Amino acid sequence: MVLIFDQCNNVLLLPKVVTLVVLMVSIPTTNGVGNNFNDEFEQTFGDHRLKIDGEGQASLILDQYSGAGFRSKKDYLFGRVDMPMKLVSGNSAGTVTTFYLTSDQSTGRHDEIDFEFLGNVSGEPYTLHTNIYTQGKGDREQQFHLWFDPTTAFHTYSILWNTRLIMFLVDEIPIRVFRANEDIGMPFPKDQPMRIQCSLWSAEWATQGGRIRTDWSKAPFIANYGKFKIDACIATGGKSSCTNVPEVPGSWRTHDLDFKGNNRLKWARAKYMIYDYCGDTKRFPQGVPPECKRD
Length: 295
Description:
By secondary structure, the protein is mainly beta.
């Protein structure tokens, strides 16, 4: 299924393959561009439960003994990462499939940008859970359902991170934008290098608030990661490789929402967002966080 928007920004669903107009042009920097799995990633846990095929695609396997994961070999300080994924099919209740960026968590003041996919029983939709940590503080969850079945084919999930904003995209559709609001006292991830992390694991809380647990008779569970793209600034000694590289208009380093992108963001949020911390007055009885008042 392909999404096309008409002149009034209404979404049209087309069953045949067409050419999409991409929301942004990503012009590679002189450093940090990669798309070979073994060059870019290393396994973090799971032993034989990480499989790499001849085309460089990765599969993570979850059984009753362990899940699996991998991470980038390099640290990055700003960039764009595109990760095609095909999620666990069938009864995926209790499973969590992830793609995220994180700095060193042992400091207690880490930064993190999360895509987490919470499984469900057969016939019920996945929950796409997003969160952002700054200086060790999270609690900025937004959740979505998707406008397609994420288990039947690869779809591309992207994190764009520059000095002005963090943007989450699904097949080039922006679903969330988190802006730098340091002028009102809100920290923004800009000083701590991050690594790309991906994993598949089981969590009791993942499905319907923990009411439904993993059915291990359905194991092994398998999530697939496709031909990724990393266009980012390598961090060495805490400094970005792009510090002295001029910004190129139209690249991820200067990207922001244009008129069409803003309307697509509104469409995704109006139709598919199921939770927004900024609207949770019970959780924040003294008032929602200050950045919410600017969104």
